[in-house]
Automatic annotation (TrEMBL):
TM stretches of this protein: 7-23, 29-50, 103-126, 132-158
Keyword Chaperone: no
Family annotation (Pfam families): Hpre_diP_synt_I
Keyword Transmembrane set for record: yes
Protein name: Gx transporter family protein
Domain of life of the source: Bacteria
Annotated keywords: Membrane, Transmembrane, Transmembrane helix
Organism name: Megasphaera hominis
InterPro entries: Hpre_diP_synt_I, Hpre_diP_synth_I
Length: 173
């Protein structure tokens, strides 16, 4: 894919993920678990993971989203939480996708779970108390539910995107 087209695609993915991040911040969270979110911006990460041939492009999209979302509404702690969650999530999703043994929904679910793991590990380091890991089972349940929701949404979105000529162009190396 030529450089201009690639930059446009990456810019669109970053913009979409930022819009979903902002929209999610406006929604009341229906979870019992404090700190749990829907992870709407991760929808774009999953779609990019399954539609872009270069995994480094997915990493770049995620990095830009984390940096820009932190600049728009978070402090340095928010950056560390987001970066750790993103790194754990994307790493797990790439590994599981490469095995070929997991569905898109399974990969997305692992992303939700590992995102929470990364954030809890950072929280444990920040407060210097390992007991915060006791909260992990609650967040694992929340991450499983949101991962399934994001996975289902990504599945149906990709199913429709694959019908577009643009999708075929994305697949070109």
């Amino acid at each position: 894919m030529n450089k201009t087209f690639r930059l446009i695609v990456l810019g669109l993915f970053v913009a979409q993920s930022l819009v979903l991040y902002i929209v999610e911040g406006m929604l009341p969270v229906p979870f019992i678990a404090p700190g749990a979110k829907l992870g709407l911006a991760n929808l774009i990460t999953v779609i990019a993971l399954y539609s872009l041939p270069r995994k480094r492009d997915v990493f770049l999209i995620l990095l830009l989203r984390v940096v820009l979302s932190t600049a728009f509404g978070g402090g340095i702690n928010a950056f560390f939480y987001s970066a750790a969650g993103a790194a754990f999530s994307l790493s797990s999703m790439i590994i599981l996708q490469k095995t070929g043994k997991f569905s898109l929904i399974g990969v997305s679910t692992a992303g939700g779970i590992f995102h929470n793991l990364g954030q809890v590990l950072v929280a444990s380091a920040v407060v210097q108390n390992i007991k915060i890991l006791l909260y992990l089972p609650v967040l694992t349940v929340a991450g499983t539910g949101t991962g399934i929701l994001i996975g289902l949404t990504a599945y149906f979105t990709l199913k429709h995107l694959q019908k577009l000529p643009l999708y075929q162009r994305l697949q070109e190396a």
